[in-house]
């Protein structure tokens, strides 16, 4: 591999790679070496940056993404680059004195130092952190003093919509290491959380009156983001593995513009891993099939992936212990179901990434991976809205993930999280097996995520004969459970199409926040509720 | 004053106050006493909260705001409360075990402690902070351990769109102490920065095709937020005191729906203090006049106020020293020009507040003050977009502003900032007086903000006779300045209506980020540019 330079960085323009020797793909071990060879980290205030600064040369040997101009909304199409940010180009001139931009001077930021205490792998528990944890210091002028590539002087000032290059590098490398998208010009941008990214996506890719495709049961907030924009849901039938591709194909093939009063939908919102609320995880084959249908009908896939690293150990059944953790990082990565991004030869996937379930929701920092064209439109929007995610959050994440853990330590953390969530899920499944009446309650062990989806056979409910509807029965059971001091979520809250009449009835339980004892007691209370209500 | 209770909190419903003894208004000294009497701070994960928990009883003796349903967009009108957040009501039942919401457990937040080093009043400089600064500790379980009202367990988890009650209390009290809005049901909500608040405001109050009113020169990014939404600017004529109310009245009185192809505008975006780019500050009388015109034409005033506390000492002229700082907090507050919010008897003002210019732009935390009806619509939007500002930022701001400084220490900081910006502005003005050719360069000393607006008499430019336009001349001067290694902003970048032909030509200089020496050198270079270009 020849030493990268400004010329390599420009390789993204190269589509005929026959004359170029094909560089090795980036590896975990290769990251430090690659970092040394690449262009210098920009460490000024709000420096322009992009993933192109951080991707390895192997990326640019691939073909470029398709153009998706036809997906852009009127709003997205008419958004121009920021005038004032464009003027920043002159700041690169050596010796330039600027009275141009209104950036406050760092002497007016009243925080001189920020320290965090964090775990050191492999001691991830709060107890281990007390003993072996590290204190990460961040001073105001660490960059000038040669102590760090990122500091408070920069983090406390305005930043770019792409995020700070220091953290953008980490997520770009992470993306290449885990997903290695099969086209050349993919990029990342940080976002102020993935809920915000989803709201922005709707404004970029839809117009009032459009339909968007969603799993028939979906994350209620994601749906509630869409409705006030005048959007309607085309609810896609699902099974234990999520979206049924044949059903999606049929719905799109038979789309009747006149009858529907809307153009054929081209935005698919999906939570492929540990879906909320059903807990379903699409297998690799399922994803390939959904991707093929998306190619056939020219669909943009927005994969919302907060639970990707909450893929758990296989469920070993009642009373059995979970299999041992992945022996190596490679085993761990191989155990993960491949993302849509990893099979995205066209550049039609927008991957919404989140630290909320694996580090901290309160950071309000996530990121997006998509083609350069699409990322650019997101960034133009962020510039005049969120501006950039919190610099304080970015600094904390950078110190923890990049300076302290590195990619390898982050994987250790994610493996520990996997084992921990496996225990939690198993506790819930064991409680269900122990308490719930099997003649009316059915479930599939979730392979990922935070949610367990319990079907309750409403047709056996005593009031059915007297004409009670599924809706009424669901409400009666829910309120009776509340009377028994246990709160589950009603399945109907998650209907993508609120007017749809569903055949089955579900309740959603989470194992994310309660302890094993609490889970057992809560499920026992729910079982009592069901027995009472069903007269069992 | 009777001890406040849940009943007092409900006083906001009372409009006939004849039977109620009128309570004293909140004072800086009264804050601790009032806090002791009021309802307990909610310290759980993502607790519901509102400013009503923190306003003093004096607020509720005032009449309620008008309703502004007719200002709401289709999007704003159709947004409902979040289903899942509504379900949280059952969590209040004692003994409830929840398997409902998918909130991660705090043991999975890998930050056990966060410490910041900050200045202690009156030692605000970095040097003083090194000597007398305080280290503020934040542990994961400070709340349970009785050490603080806010901690990492809460800050690192999801929060409410209103922001954490801990910080919401501070901004609510600050708002009452400084602005004391003259109607009862005002509220605050935190936001992920005021640029984001402005983007959201446009989506709440406008439809594609509408005009919005802006100062004829305005913050370029604010305008660029609006254009892709299909909005047009009605550029309001300005003088040294900003918006000319008579001109605004005339434009609205003569609005011709047919000729304009749009309904009469009802959203006014204004930066009343230290306006960007002109540096103009509207006097109290000017604001009263603009408010009256807004009442007459039923206009919603969005006051964007990042520079409110960058009101400086009066300019004493060349060579003279600045007057001494305000002797007391009361003197300081009296020296501030009253906000639109403080004169808003109708509840027609939406005040966008920011910590960016007075604490740190990188926090990406700001807040909005408006009537309960309007705040509720903002919050509904935030819930499905930003969710909440960074919890890490909120924690840092709370520790600094509330626990360490308190309202009184924050005022000390703001006074120090005032004196410091006065010095910076004076350095710029002295440099202008020293270097700039007075026959072609004219300016007014800015009373607030970060910006100095320099008029250059383009009609005296050598190329005018040969037919060079103002635009071309502005560009030639700008590029020539770049060649002389000094960057100013071109006035035309800030035109609210990009198609407007302006009579005058301006350059904007900031004194926010450069040192006095740099400012002197930069203005000297600009003077050289002007002399060369004008052949002086």
TrEMBL record, chains A, B:
Signal sequence residues: none
Subcellular location(s) of the protein: Cytoplasm
Main location per the UniProt record: cytoplasm
UniProt GO cellular component terms: cytoplasm
Reactions it catalyzes: an aromatic L-alpha-amino acid + 2-oxoglutarate = an aromatic oxo-acid + L-glutamate
Keyword ATP-binding: no
Enzyme Commission number, as recorded: 2.6.1.57
MF-aspect GO terms: 2-aminoadipate transaminase activity; aromatic-amino-acid transaminase activity; pyridoxal phosphate binding
Family stated for the protein in its record: Belongs to the class-I pyridoxal-phosphate-dependent aminotransferase family.
Protein name per the record: aromatic-amino-acid transaminase
Species for this entry: Penicillium frequentans
Phylogenetic placement of the source organism: Eukaryota, Fungi, Dikarya, Ascomycota, Pezizomycotina
